[in-house]
Amino acid sequence: MFRRRAHLTAGIAAALVVAGLCLVPGSASAAGGLSATFTKTSDWGTGYEASYRIANAGTVATTSWTLEFDLPAGALITSLWEGTFTQTGTHVTVHNAAWNGAIAPGAAVLPGYDASYTGTFVAPANCLLNGGSCAAGGTPPPPGDTTAPTVPAGLRSTGTTSSSVSLAWTASTDNVGVTGYDVFRDGALATTVTGASATVAGLTASTAYSFTVAARDAAGNSSARSAAISVTTAAGGTPPPPPPPPPGGARKVGYFAQWGIYGRNFTLHTLDAQAMAGKLTTINYAFENVGSDGKCFEANLAGQGDAFADYQKTFDAASSVSGVADTFSQPLKGNFNQLRELKAKYPNLSVQVSIGGWTYSKFFSDAALTAASRQALVASCIDMFLKGNLPLVQGDPSGGPGSAAGIFDGIDIDWEWPGSEGNTGNVIRPQDKQNFTLLMAEFRRQLDAYGATVGRHYSLSAFLPADPAKIAAGFEVPQIFSSLDWATVQGYDFHGAWEGTTMHQANLFPVANDPSPAKFSGDLAIGSYTSAGVPASKLLLGLPYYGRGWTGVGSTNNGLFQAGAAAAGTFEAGIEDYKVLKNRPGTRFRDTAAGALWLYDGTNWWSYDDPTVIAQKTAYVKQKGLGGVMVWELDGDDGTLTTAVDTGLR
To answer: Average pLDDT, stretch 99-123?
Structure first.
């Protein structure tokens, strides 16, 4: 019922698309300027792949480039490489990646993309390159343009933490077009952004700073600086620094599902008995809910909360981590007490409480909407789960002030999804994207403030999507990472039986001849963040401990890319645990180039990861310098995959 089902949808992600050739001056002295040439390399009737060559025919190296264009109705960009982007409606703005903004004279860069469409292929229109027309014969910016943009107005603070200040202002105008803004802190350049908001990090608590902002255009003209504002960072003392990376340098984070103790009979004692607990660095306990009042809460209400599983259920001696049976009257029972016992047995194991998930993300948008609502949400979560002030529910004696103190070492936010579709009934707003950043900053501020009072650091992580469209709609990257200790990146649910065609659900790399309109991979997901400037060490690749399956599948191509319906699963159609699939009969096929495995028995087709695939993915994690891996969810394993993860990351 609660398994994460964050289906990736083909959404507007970004593109570097333009038809024809355009010539635009890269600078006032760059004779010939920049040219941009579009080439479509393949087309499968419902989508296509293309590249866009941006060449410098001038005499001066560029420092950056920006493309803008309008997509035709019905066309969706499903993946993009060698660039970053924003989108408003059908209008797309693409900026160079961190490594390819400088184009030397005579050199070129070659960004590319995949897109889906309906009907007949139509190239994007109304292209601008660095503010000038890209169309053949188009008009570049006026030679010798000396008109500066208007001065940004309305500079204001939209949020503070003990180490950052978030700012916003009214966008400037220009005779050609504004291409960016320079934000100054105490007179020195602090950051450069393309939109009318910014977060300046690396600040000192309880300190006043002066901020101004200036606009720039394509010709290099800068406006005068705005009126200055003074903003004081939040108090909170100086909390201890984050702990060093775990031994070996890699995090191994596993989600323990609250409800796994029921049908799967998977308890924290099971986790220990199957030799999994000692091979993890962190357990994310999933999930706690956000109520309609915008606060964390506990209750025994179907579909809303399970205080019984959390801290009221009694475990007998045989199912307890300590081997001692619970008593009804003890202050804390349930999974929370078992987590406490597990931490006592494994002192280096940390535990985070995970808030949200597919089912419990309904009211995140409301809770993140204002400074007051963000403050209230964070305070309620810290009070309940870190300070351990659990409510007494339905007459059970467990709970009360401080009853769960010391169990959780941090908070994991799993909002699925800010600014875009998630579970039916979720509240969604366009401003979720900015508010997610502000919510993470508020969590960081209050975690640091509370940590300073108790002399420890509390971790903050977030689960982030693989779909470039969902990233664009809901996450300011890399700004959010100034608040996060790390983030786990979805590396699964790329495809499933809801699509009606068999396809890998967790491939590491692109799949050859993939007919899917939306082409996803773990590498693409990670690259979507690193290309935007996120340190690789803050990213954890998500791995599935379950498979997705189809039935009624024909034998062509050993069942790959064939029609089918959802296969029967123990708990949900189209899904089965690894520990079940490993023993299923049939032939197993590997695509080592894509980092994928499938099982086919002549009618049933399953995509899942086994130890060989895990070994390839952990090698990738080390090769890319990532922070480690995350697994969803631990009750799908019998210890085999967790051992493979531990071995692969040593």
So the answer is: 72
The two tokens of residue 266 are 């998977």
**Cβ–Cβ under 8 Å, residues 363 and 295:** no
Query: What is the full DSSP assignment across 194-223?
Result: SSSEEEE-SPPTT-EEEEEEEEEETTS-BP
Sequence-ordered list of residues with C-beta below 8 angstroms from that of 467, at least 6 positions apart, any chain:
8, 9, 11, 13, 490, 518, 520
Quote the Cα angle for 250-254-257, to 5°. 170
User: At 179, phi and psi to the nearest 5?
Assistant: -110, -10
Which is the catalytic residue, given 82, 298, 416, 476?
Answer: 416
Query: 193 - beta bridge partners?
Result: 181
Alpha-carbon distance of 436 to 420, in angstroms, equals: 12
Q: What is the pLDDT of residue 578?
A: 98
- Cis check: omega of the bond before 341, within 30 degrees of 0: no
Band (pLDDT 50/70/90 cuts) for residue 121 is confident
Establish whether 49 is a catalytic residue.
Answer: no
Those residues whose C-beta lies under 8 Å from the C-beta of residue 540, and which sit 6 or more positions away, are 251, 253, 486, 487, 488, 489, 626, 627, 628, 629, 630
Query: In this predicted model, what pLDDT tens digit does every residue of 300-336 receive, in sequence order?
Result: 998 899 999 999 999 999 999 999 999 998 999 999 9
Is residue 11 scored above 80 in pLDDT?
no
Question: Helix 371-381 to helix 432-454 angle, to the nearest 10 degrees?
Answer: 40
Return the pLDDT at 61: 78
Report the C-alpha gap between 261 and 256 in whole angstroms: 10
DSSP secondary structure code for residue 557 in this structure: G
Contact predicate 360/425, CB 8 Å: no
Q: At what angle do helices 522-530 and 611-624 cross, to 10 degrees?
A: 20
DSSP SS3 for 253:
strand
Structure tokens at 28: 């006032």
- Print burial letters for 64-73: b (CB count within 10 Å at least 16), e (below 16): bbbbbbebbe
What pLDDT score was predicted for residue 133?
63
Compute CA 369 distance to the chain's CA centroid, rounded to the nearest angstrom: 20
350-356 and 410-414 strand pairing? parallel
Whole-angstrom distance, CA of residue 201 vs CA of residue 191: 9
Dist CA 391 CA 388 (whole Å)? 9
Long-range contacts of 69-73 (CB under 8 A, 24+ apart): 69/15, 69/17, 69/18, 69/124, 69/125, 69/126, 69/127, 69/128, 69/134, 70/124, 70/125, 70/126, 71/12, 71/15, 71/17, 71/124, 72/117, 72/122, 72/123, 72/124, 72/125
**Phi, psi torsion values for 316, nearest 5 degrees:** -80, 175
At residue 417, what are phi and psi to the nearest 5 degrees? -140, 140
Which burial class, exposed, middle or buried, applies to 597 when counting CB atoms under 10 A from its CB (0-12, 13-18, 19+)?
A: buried
Per-residue 3-state assignment (H helix, E strand, C coil) for 65-125: CEEEEECCCCCEEEEEECCEEEEECCEEEEECCCCCCCCCCCCEECCEEEEECCCCCCCCE
DSSP, residue by residue, 330-359: SS--HHHHHHHHHHHH-TT-EEEEEEETTT
Prediction pTM value: 0.67
Residue 586 gets the label, from left (phi > 0), alpha (psi -120 to 50) or beta, of: left
Q: Is the pLDDT of residue 436 over 60?
A: yes
User: What does the pLDDT look like over 440-477, one tens digit per residue?
Assistant: 999 999 999 999 888 889 999 999 999 999 999 999 99
Short-list 489, 386, 474, 414, CA closest to 438: 474
> What are 391-406's pLDDT values in tens digits?
999 999 999 999 999 9
State how far the Cα of 158 lies from the Cα of 402, in Å rounded to an integer.
34
